[in-house]
Amino acid sequence: MMATILTLIILGMVFQGAMVVVDSVLDTIKVNDTLKSIPIVGGNLNLIWAYLFVLISQINGANDVLNLGFGTNMELLSLGRFGMDVATAIVLVAFIPVRDAAISALKKGIGGRGD
Asked: Rounded distance, CA 16 to CA 28, Å?
């Protein structure tokens, strides 16, 4: 269970790093503001990028990074591979605040001992 949570936190970190590069490239070619202004796409752009990240990195591919034998299944609404990819993208986006909280707690725990 902890391995799954740690895997998701690390994947969230990698995803955020990739998003910094994608946002930088889109800002350079002046497309980022245009994408964010599209009514339905703009509000869900982070989730769309997460889904593309899952597809490109093949997290749910043959290696099954998230299949750690704990009886968990990432499938969403019995949609097969598409449902697994969408669920993984949702979890990646949802774990960004969890990652921030975990890093903050570690900083307070390690840095707070000397105070």
From this structure: 18
pTM metric for this prediction:
0.68
pLDDT at 29: 93
pLDDT block averages, 10 residues each, the chain of length 115:
74 85 91 88 86 82 54 61 80 80 78 55
List the beta strands (DSSP E) in 30-95.
none
CA distances in angstroms from 5 to 36, 62, 63, 66, 92, listed in the order given: 30, 20, 18, 10, 11
Taking the CA atoms of residue 6, residue 12, residue 16 and residue 22 in that order, the dihedral angle to the nearest 10 degrees is 130
Distances (CA, A) of 92 to 27, 70, 86, 113, 114: 23, 19, 10, 32, 34
- In angstroms, the Cα distances linking 1 to 7, 8, 47, 57 are 10, 11, 24, 22
- Helix (H, G, I), strand (E, B), or coil: what is residue 85? helix
Q: Taking a C-beta distance cutoff of 8 angstroms, is the pair 9, 105 a contact?
A: no
